[in-house]
Design a protein that fits this description.
Blueprint lengths: L2 H10 L4 H8 L2 H13 L2 H10 L11 E2 L4 E2 L5 H16 L3 E6 L26 H16 L5 E5 L4 H10 L13 E3 L2 E3 L1 E2 L14 E3 L5 H7 L2 H8 L3 E6 L10 H9 L4 E7 L9 E5 L2 E5 L6 H4 L12 E10 H7 L6 E6 L3 E2 L5 E2 L6 E6 L12 E4 L2 H4 L12 H12 L5
Parallel strand pairs: 2-18, 3-4, 3-9, 4-5, 10-18
Antiparallel strand pairs: 1-11, 6-8, 7-17, 9-13, 10-13, 11-12, 14-17, 15-16
């Protein structure tokens, strides 16, 4: 794309304001901006902008409760059977793991990738090292080395690799950290559908959500690498959970025994108001309703035992058979708009920090893939042993709560 083509693309799509930024840039940055514009699908961006004006479709759908199995209520015989099957699969090198680590630690006051953040345990290990320890423990127990794939974003890809190299991969065999691979990005737009510029005068991009993992598994070569290694199951989880069980034989055995192609470990909500998506059936298919989409009436419904009827939280603890991943990759997941507070450079070259949401980013959600399959296996876990995320600087799901839960689980005393 030459300058005339660049200029025409902007003018044809109502984005002429970008030209003012172009004039202020150095030559190398000008080339980068032209490259960014060349990659934009303006038809898609217009469609996404129009979608911000529409109400969610959930209200027009038939929503029903979905069945799950509570791991706490399994008999000892059932547990032993699931564990035996799961351990065999791990020992036969049938398991691989993806950690989704594309986020920055900005909300925690941390300038690097979230995985490099220190939650303050006595050993001062980063979240990356905490999760690496979990895998190393499984490797030692089962006499294998589980392939570990780490999904980054363009924003933190090189910083993540540099961190692992600086720490000698925390002792994990380099050849078994199969790939560091990046998810895709989309431009952010303001409330009028205009492209937003970042502090450098370039188009502000945002990662395409955890649903982007499926496309990235293909473009990043992960599925092909899994096939070469003979892995049949892929566990996918987020970086921010310091209690994640990446190689849980009970969970894996449950999926295999019940012949599920996809399975999710759920965590019961603490109450109707907890901000977490919940499992259900939408028009007869497995689905997750985001907390922003579920009505107060549905959120407060209870069953005959007094438990929330829609209380099985989706916390990104998902297991996929490789055949399911191949099937899901054929579909294009829908985008969801998120209204965000986003700093930007205005037409005069001044960086503005807004006080309220002013922009949209567009994400795909991993759980939208569930409806592409006929069924999903849900196994209820325990919050105190399975789930303690680091999302907020303080309060709920903060470094303080994650540190407390991690130390309690591992029997570490406060100093």
């Amino acid at each position: 794309m030459n300058f005339d083509e660049f200029k025409k693309a902007l003018e044809d799509n109502g984005q002429e304001h970008i030209l003012k930024s172009y004039e202020r840039l150095e030559e190398s940055a000008k080339a980068k901006l032209i490259e960014q514009v060349e990659k934009i699908d303006f038809v898609k961006m217009r469609e996404l902008y129009e979608s911000t004006k529409k109400a969610p479709e959930v209200s027009e759908s038939i929503i029903e409760p979905i069945a799950y199995i509570d791991s706490n209520k399994l008999s000892e015989e059932e547990k032993a059977d699931y564990i035996r099957i799961g351990e065999t699969a791990i020992q036969e090198n049938k398991l691989a793991v993806v950690t989704m680590a594309g986020g920055q630690g900005t909300r925690l006051g941390h300038s690097g990738p979230k995985g490099t953040f220190d939650i303050g345990i006595p050993s001062h290990k980063s979240i990356f090292e905490i999760q690496c320890d979990i895998l190393k423990e499984a490797n030692e127990k089962y006499g294998v080395t589980i392939p570990w794939y780490i999904m980054t974003s363009n924003e933190n890809h090189q910083d993540t690799i540099d961190f692992f190299e600086a720490n000698d991969y925390f002792g994990y065999p380099r050849t078994e950290i199969g790939y560091f691979f990046s998810q895709n990005e989309l431009p952010m737009i303001d409330e009028d559908g205009k492209l937003i510029l970042n502090e450098e005068g370039l188009i502000k991009l945002a990662a395409d959500g955890h649903g982007g993992v499926f496309e990235a598994l293909v473009t990043g070569g992960i599925l092909e690498d899994m096939k070469k290694r003979g892995a049949q199951w892929l566990f996918i989880a987020a970086i921010d959970n310091v209690l994640v069980k990446m190689a849980d034989p009970l969970f894996i055995g449950f999926a295999i025994k019940k012949e599920y192609k996809i399975a999710s470990k759920t965590i019961p909500k603490t109450g109707p108001e907890e901000r977490v998506g919940v499992f259900c059936k939408k028009d007869g298919k497995p689905y997750v309703i985001e907390y922003t989409e579920i009505s107060p009436e549905f959120a407060n419904m209870r069953d005959e035992n007094g438990e929330l009827l829609y209380g099985e939280g989706h916390v990104l603890l998902n297991l996929f058979h490789i055949s399911a991943l191949e099937e899901i990759e054929k579909f294009k997941l829908p985008y969801h708009a998120a209204h965000k507070k986003c700093s930007y450079m205005n037409e005069e070259g001044v960086v503005i920090a807004p006080e309220k949401p002013n922009a949209y980013k567009f994400e795909t959600f991993l759980f939208d893939a569930f409806a592409k399959m006929p069924e999903i296996g849900l196994l209820r876990g325990k919050r105190e042993i399975d789930f303690s995320p680091v999302k907020n600087a303080e309060g709920v799901d903060s470094p303080e709560t994650a540190r407390r839960d991690y130390m309690r689980y591992h029997g570490i005393e406060e100093r």
